[in-house]
């Protein structure tokens, strides 16, 4: 029984290790930062929604992050006709599989399945690799099939592998990315843009999270007040016995 419990506890660690165990950078997630979420939604619609759908997210949910129906129609509604529709794409699945080798996954809950930190590291980890069909590879997702759609903004990186010896005399390979061709954005600007995109992807995975958290606070406050009332009511009922 102890061995089974031990293996269950190790399961997330083993799953992480199976993906390469890449050190992940901390994503700047703030579900209360509406300007960041709005910028992230813009990046998602312009760069991701052409191939990846978000079939469980409706455009009108963007009103929850401070956008009006008119702003959504004028700036974000490119793949649909009505604000109440879901974020689907017109690309045929068979064509997508033929072009990319696999159908691009739906991104509605990708931040919950992969984690925001993984996405933040992944979107900043593309580098040139002539052995790949697309010409790109990724430090967080080795032999990735997706091309680097943001390369014009980030630029082109190459991967350098160095061999380091630790204090115990063991040799380890250290991978470093070098920007060899600058993009339209500087590194801080690109990292900030990716941070906004990942922040939006995290929001899209659970749009009601902030409402749920606020409601939870109100419930706890109510229970705290009710506990005091119940305590003194109990004392009043039992005072003759005690």
From TrEMBL:
GO terms for cellular component: membrane. Heme c binds at residues 48, 51-52. SUPFAM superfamilies: Cytochrome c (SSF46626). Its cofactor is heme c. Binds 1 heme c group covalently per subunit. The chain crosses the membrane at residues 215-233. This is Ubiquinol-cytochrome c reductase cytochrome c1 subunit. It comes from Sulfurirhabdus autotrophica.
């Amino acid at each position: 029984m102890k061995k089974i419990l031990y293996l269950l506890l190790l399961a997330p660690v083993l799953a992480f290790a199976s993906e390469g165990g890449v050190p992940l950078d901390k994503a700047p997630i703030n579900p209360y930062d509406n300007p960041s979420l709005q910028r992230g939604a813009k990046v998602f619609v312009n760069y991701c929604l052409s191939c990846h759908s978000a079939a469980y997210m409706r455009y009108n949910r963007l009103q929850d992050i401070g956008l009006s129906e008119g702003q959504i129609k004028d700036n974000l509604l490119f793949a649909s006709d009505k604000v109440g529709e879901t974020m689907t794409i017109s690309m045929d699945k068979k064509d997508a599989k033929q072009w990319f080798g696999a159908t691009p996954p739906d991104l509605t809950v990708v931040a919950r399945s992969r984690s925001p930190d993984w996405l933040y590291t992944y979107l900043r980890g593309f580098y040139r690799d002539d052995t790949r069909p697309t010409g790109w590879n990724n430090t967080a997702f080795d032999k990735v099939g997706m091309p680097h759609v943001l390369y014009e903004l980030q630029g082109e990186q190459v991967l350098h592998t160095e061999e380091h010896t630790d204090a115990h005399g063991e040799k380890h390979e250290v991978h470093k990315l070098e920007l060899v061709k600058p993009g339209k954005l500087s590194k801080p600007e690109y990292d900030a843009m990716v941070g906004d995109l990942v922040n939006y992807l995290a929001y899209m995975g659970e749009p009601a999270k902030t409402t749920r958290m606020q409601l939870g606070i109100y419930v706890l406050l109510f229970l705290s007040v009710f506990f005091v009332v119940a305590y003194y009511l109990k004392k009043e009922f039992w005072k003759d016995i005690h």
